[in-house]
C-alpha cells in the first residue's frame, strides 16, 4: 500500500511536471535568451544568458511603461479593495443579522452581481457622463462594483459564525449601531478580510477585459494591458515578450506562497454550502 | 431606587404569542429568579426588560421611569449573557471598560473604575489577557465585571451558569449571592434550573407557556405551590402527581405528595407497593415503588435505610403535606 | 395593577415614585440595531457602476448607436444578430465552449481531487502545482500557449514531431482553434475545480467509506455510491462557476486567436468587443443583452435544479 502510493505519487508528479510546469520553464528559458535565439521558440537551454539585460530592456521599453502600469494596477487594486472591504462587510453584516423581506431583494442583487457580465458599452457611456472614463478613479469604482458580490457572500457566511450576543452586549454597553459594527464586528472579521484582500487583489491585478474597455490609451495602462500591447511590439523580440509574461506571473506567485491558506479558503467558500 | 414594574407585557412573533400578558413588580434590591421549562418565555421576558427585544404591547418601568421604548443603554441595566459575550479582540481590561470608553469618559476615570471592579472580582492579574486565555469561571467573572462597571440599578442574568461544570456552578451560586448582598442592586436572573432558583432567589417567578404560574419566596413555592405545574417544577426529586381516576378517588383533579413527605414502613401505611429500584445518594436514598392502583411512587428516605429491590413496602403521606388541586 | 395597555404603565397608581417620573417617557419607537443605511455605500457603488448600465443596456440594445448619433430601431439589432452567420457563430461557439470546458473541468477536477486526497506521495506539492495556473494572468497564459501552439515552431508540435506525429495547426486551423483555446482554458481552470472538490471531499466523514467497505463495496462502488452523491454541493459549485466563466470568457480567446481564423473561434464576448471597436454600439449592447439572457436562462434553472436535488436528499 505504502509503496503503491509512493509510485502513484511519483507518476502523478511526473505528469504534472510535464503538463503544468514545463510551460513556465519554457517561458523562463526564453526570457533569458537573445532575440534571435528565442525567435525559434525552441525548448532549449539558452546559449547565452541575457536574463538581466532582457529584464532591464522590458522595464525600460516605451519610457518605463511597465513601471507606470505596475503603479496604476497597484493603485486600482488597493483602492477598489479598500472600498469593497468596508462597504461589502457592512452589507454582509446587515444581510446576516436582519431577516426581512428586503433581504431577499438585496441578496438577489448580490447574486446578480456575481453572475451577470457587465454591460460594457452602457458602462462606458455612463463613465463618460460622469467624467470618469479613462480614469483610475472610475476603474476603482468599477472593480469595486464587480467584486462586491463575492465580498458580500464571503462576509455574510463568516458573520454567521459570530454570536449575536456580542452585538447585544455592545448595545447594552451603549454602542450605537455603527459602533457595534466598527468597534466590535469589523475587528473580528480579520481572517475573512485577509481572504477577500488576497483573492480580489489577484482578480483585479489579473483583470484584462475591463481595463481594455474602460482605460484605453497610454497614460492609464495597467499591467495586463501593457502585456497585451507589448505582444505586437515585441513580435521580433520573443525574449522580451516572455520576460514580460514572467514579470506578470511573479506577483501572484509571491502572493500564493504567502497566502496559500487564505486563497484556498476564499476560492472554496461555496463548495461546502453550495 | 430600581424597582422594576411590568404592566401587561405581551409579545408575539408573527402569529405566535409567546408572552401572554405579564404583570409583575420586582422590588428594589430584590434577587428575582424567572424559572420555567424551555420555551416558557422567561428569556424573552428578560430580553424585553433589557430592551433588546421590543414588547408588542405593555409597559416597563425601571426605577420609577417609563422605559417601555427606551434604548437598552438608557435603561440603567446591565446584562450577563449565557455565552458571556466577551469581545474576543479586546483584553479583559478593555472588555470591562468598553461601555465607559463608548461614553467617552476620561481615561483616568475608566482605569479607576476597571481597577475597582477587577479588585472586587479578583480579576486584577488577568486584566491584560484576552478572553481566549481565560477559564470558564474567569470568563464568567469578567462578564459580571463588565456589568458591574456600568453601576446599573438592575442586573439581568440570562442562564449565566449553564456553561459551567457542576462544581464551579455551585461555587458561582454562592459568589453571586454574596455579590448581590454586597451591591444591593436589583437582580433578575433567568434559569431553567430550579436548584439555582431555590438557592439564590428572594423571589421566584414561575413561568409556563408565556404566563406567570406563581410568584413567591422559595419556601412559599415549596410549601404552597399554587398549581400542579409549580408543584411539579419546584422540589427535587419531583413531587409525585396523580391525575384521573386515582386523583378523583382522593377527591380532587390532581393529587400530589413530595417524596420527602412519605414515611416508609415494612408493615403499615396508606399504599403498599413493591420496590423497583433504589437510588443511593449517600445521605439520602430515593426509593422507586410500584403501587397497584396508583402507579409509580417515589419516596425519599435516609441513606442507610436497608431496602432492596423486590421488597414489599408501605408508604404513608405525612400529615398536612398532601396537595389536592381542583378539590370538589 | 391590571392595566389595559402598557402606555399607561407609569400612571399605575400603586407606584408612587414611578408615576411622576414616567411622564418624561421617550415616545419614539426604537430603531433597529441593524439599520438599512448600512447598504448605502455598497448600494451606491453597485447601483451606479453595475446596475444602472445593466438596466440601460436593455434600452441601448434597441438603438442604432454609433459615435455620432443614437436612434431607436426596435429589435433590429437582435434580428441582425440571429441572421448574420458570423454573429450566430459567436453564439453557438459560446455554448460549445462553455459546455466543453465545464464538463471537462467537472470530471477532471473530481478525478484529480480524488487522487490528491488519497494520501499519495507529494500530495501537497501536487495540489499547488495544479492550482497555480488559476492565479496566473490569463493574458500571460494565452500568449504563452499561442507560442507553444505555433504550427511549425511551437514546442507542442516539435515534441509531437519527435515521436513521429505531425501536429495540427492548433490555432490556425479554423475547425480546431476554438477547441485549442478550450483546452488551454481547461488547463488553466481545472486547478480551481480540483480545489473546490478537495474541500468538498474533506467534508465527507470517513465513516461512510468504512461502512461501505464493511458492506462489501469495491473501490469503484465506493466512488459512485458514496463519493459522487456526497460531493454534490461541490459539483454544483464547480458546474455553475465554470459555466458562468465559460459563457463570459473573453481574455483568453482574445489573447490567443482574437476570434480567428476568420470568425471560427469568436464567442459572444469577443463579438461584443469587436462591434464596440467598430463603432456599432447598439449592436454590441444587443450582444451583451443576449449574453446575460443566455447566462440567466442557463444558470438560474440549473441552480434551482441543483438546489432542489439537494433538498430532496
What's the layout of helices and strands?
The complex is a heterotrimer of chains A (274), B (328) and C (313).
Chain A: H1 2-31, H2 35-38, H3 51-97, H4 101-115, H5 120-129, H6 136-159, H7 164-172, H8 177-188, H9 190-206, H10 209-214, H11 223-233, H12 238-267, H13 269-273
Helix pairs in contact in A: 1-12, 3-6, 3-9, 3-11, 3-12, 4-6, 6-9, 7-8, 9-12, 11-12
Chain B: E1 4-13, E2 16-26, E3 31-35, H1 42-50, E4 57-62, E5 65-66, E6 77-80, H2 92-102, H3 107-120, H4 136-148, E7 154-158, H5 166-183, E8 186-191, H6 194-200, E9 203-208, E10 211-216, H7 218-223, H8 228-233, E11 240-243, H9 244-249, E12 254-257, E13 262-265, E14 271-280, E15 284-291, E16 295-302, E17 312-317, E18 323-325
Parallel strand pairs in B: 3-8, 3-9, 6-7, 7-8
Antiparallel strand pairs in B: 1-2, 1-4, 4-5, 9-10, 11-12, 12-18, 13-17, 14-15, 14-17, 15-16
Helix pairs in contact in B: 2-3, 2-4
Chain C: H1 16-21, H2 40-60, E1 63-65, E2 70-72, H3 76-83, H4 85-115, H5 123-135, H6 138-148, H7 155-162, H8 177-201, H9 206-214, H10 219-230, H11 232-248, H12 251-256, H13 268-277, H14 281-312
Antiparallel strand pairs in C: 1-2
Explain what you see.
The complex is a heterotrimer of chains A (274), B (328) and C (313). Chain A is mainly alpha-helical and 274 residues long. Chain A has a single domain (62-268), classed as MetI-like (MetI-like fold, Orthogonal Bundle), CATH 1.10.3720. Chain A is built from 13 helices and no strands. Chain A has helices at 2-31, 35-38, 51-97, 101-115, 120-129, 136-159, 164-172, 177-188, 190-206, 209-214, 223-233, 238-267, 269-273. The model of chain A has no long low-confidence stretch (mean pLDDT 88). The mean pLDDT of chain B is 92. In chain B, the strands form four sheets. In chain B, strands 6-7-8-3-9-10 form a six-stranded mixed beta sheet, with helices on both faces. The relative contact order of chain B is 0.12. Chain B contains nine helices and 18 strands. The longest helix of chain B has 18 residues, at 166-183. Chain B has helices at 42-50, 92-102, 107-120, 136-148, 166-183, 194-200, 218-223, 228-233, 244-249; strands at 4-13, 16-26, 31-35, 57-62, 65-66, 77-80, 154-158, 186-191, 203-208, 211-216, 240-243, 254-257, 262-265, 271-280, 284-291, 295-302, 312-317, 323-325. Chain C has a two-stranded antiparallel sheet. In chain C, α3 (76-83) crosses α14 (281-312). Chain C folds into three domains: 1-25; 33-74, no CATH class; 81-312, MetI-like (MetI-like fold), CATH 1.10.3720. Mean pLDDT of chain C is 85; it is low at 1-28. Chain C is mainly α. Chain C has 14 helices and two strands. Chain C has helices at residues 16-21, 40-60, 76-83, 85-115, 123-135, 138-148, 155-162, 177-201, 206-214, 219-230, 232-248, 251-256, 268-277, 281-312; strands at 63-65, 70-72.
